[in-house]
Specification:
globular; about 140 residues; three-stranded antiparallel beta sheet; single chain; mainly alpha
Length: about 140
């Protein structure tokens, strides 16, 4: 588990501010759009499935993403393709055959998510305890020391 004590928090804040300052107004919108993939269940599911299995057809992705609707899968695929995270290949056949592959950018997203996922897993007991306290009406005052 990574603890805040392992970091110089002032350095973390300075690096965070430098990253924000480096983004132009236009880049800020791009940042929000790309980060939406990182927080989207279906986008991450698609990226993960393609990372694990390589190239997959639309129907194969739908089978791997339990609960995804046809509309949501198509929409997520289009957004990922627009941002260069996946590539769509239409084989021009009848019946239609289309498949999807993770790009280098998509692989980078998958690699970049691992520290966040690890942090969530490492801190799951603390999240559960905080939710339990909150759900039972206890004060949710964070311990800052």
């Amino acid at each position: 588990m990574i603890l805040l004590d392992d970091f110089d928090f002032d350095e973390v804040i300075a690096r965070s501010q430098a990253a924000c300052d480096a983004l132009s107004y236009h880049d800020d919108g791009l940042k929000r759009n790309v980060l939406a993939h990182a927080g989207n269940r279906w986008s991450l599911g698609i990226v993960h499935a393609l990372g694990v299995s390589g190239t997959l057809r639309h129907a194969e992705l739908a089978r791997r993403l339990e609960g995804v609707t046809q509309r949501m899968l198509t929409r997520s695929l289009r957004h990922l393709e627009r941002d260069g995270l996946i590539v769509r290949r239409d084989h021009g056949e009848v019946p239609p055959r289309v498949d999807y592959t993770l790009t280098l950018l998509g692989r980078g997203l998958l690699v970049g998510m691992i520290p966040l996922w690890t942090w969530i897993i490492d801190n799951a007991p603390a999240f559960r305890a905080a939710r339990d306290r909150f759900d039972h009406g206890a004060s949710a005052t964070a311990v800052l020391e």
